[in-house]
Structure to design on (203 residues):
């Protein structure tokens, strides 16, 4: 191998390393229509009063209240911390002039902007979400534990088929990998996945 080939290879490896650790968003104006339907489903979950605007109160306070209905208080506070942080990172940030109320169009606009967050940080959020609902700390979500996650997301659909779609190895529990991969696909994949029911459904 010539030194030029070697340098090219090293550069390629370096670029791939950067890609794998840093590209979370590179979609400015390029969300697929399918991906936008996923964001809309989440938006509608959070927009409890259905006025077409998601406020910080709905995003943080009302979701925390729902969490308090189904989780011990310290776990509900963990949810509160995660969602307060998520609102600052993805919604009310420098790109939206720190606004605290969003129409759906506002939400898409700000979510399509590249923000400095790594894929590791993103998957850490999903792991923390998993841990918050793993009430008995056994590293698995039973259908009962997962149903609490769905409750916070105002799911109205039958739980078993949703659980079955996430339980990829069909062993009757969700391990962290099953949950985290489904949650990350929901937020970051442009195309359909059978696991996209992870945050439940509303009819
Ligand atoms: Ca568990
Ligand atoms: Ca499983």
């Amino acid at each position: 191998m010539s030194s030029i080939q070697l340098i090219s290879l090293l550069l390629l490896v370096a670029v791939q390393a950067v890609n794998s650790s840093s590209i979370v968003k590179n979609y400015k104006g390029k969300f697929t229509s399918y991906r936008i339907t996923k964001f809309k489903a989440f938006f509608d979950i959070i927009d409890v009063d259905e006025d077409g605007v998601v406020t910080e109160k709905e995003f943080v306070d009302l979701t925390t209240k729902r969490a308090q209905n189904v989780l011990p208080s310290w776990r509900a506070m963990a949810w509160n911390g995660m969602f307060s942080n998520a609102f600052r990172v993805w919604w009310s940030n420098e790109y939206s002039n720190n606004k605290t109320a969003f129409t759906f169009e506002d939400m898409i606009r700000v979510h399509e902007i590249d923000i400095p967050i790594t894929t590791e940080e993103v998957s850490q959020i999903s792991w923390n979400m998993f841990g918050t609902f793993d009430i008995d700390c056994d590293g698995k979500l039973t259908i009962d534990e997962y149903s609490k996650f769905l409750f916070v997301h105002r799911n109205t659909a039958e739980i078993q088929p949703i659980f079955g779609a996430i339980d990829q190895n069909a062993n009757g529990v969700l391990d962290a990998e099953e949950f985290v991969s489904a949650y990350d696909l929901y937020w970051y994949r442009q195309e359909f996945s059978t696991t996209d029911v992870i945050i439940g459904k509303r009819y």
